[in-house]
Amino acid sequence: MGSNPSLMDFNDLLPIVTNVPNLQQIDLMGCPISEQKFYRRKIFEIFPKLQFLDNLDIKGSEIRVDQTALLSEEEKGDDLDEKSNDSFQDNKRKKVKKS
Question: What is the pLDDT of residues 21-70, one digit of tens each?
């Protein structure tokens, strides 16, 4: 959600608070609101379930996310299918070169 010029004031976040009350992560870096005084503290107050803001936890420590952990089971299956297909194609090419 970064760089949204319409997010200038904390009141601009109210629709998000209302529609996504269990929000755990948000990236507002580059939004005008991120230049507000006490920005981080206020965002964590507004979103009580929030764990990460701008890829930092509440203490300001950077998070490292394993991208595969964020994939749905279906996406993980698709990724495995692609790897299997790539491996199959590689083996097929090797056999053609030997012939």
Answer: 999 999 999 999 999 999 999 999 999 999 999 999 999 999 876 655 55
Closest Cα partner for 24 from 59, 50, 3, 2? Answer: 50
Beta strands per DSSP E along the chain? 25-26, 52-53, 56-57
Hey, what CATH class is 1-65 in? alpha beta
Token output for 79: 């990724």
User: Against a cut of 0.85, is the pTM above it?
Assistant: no
Please report, as a single letter, which amino acid is at residue 25: Q
- Tell me the domain boundaries of the chain: 1-65, 66-99
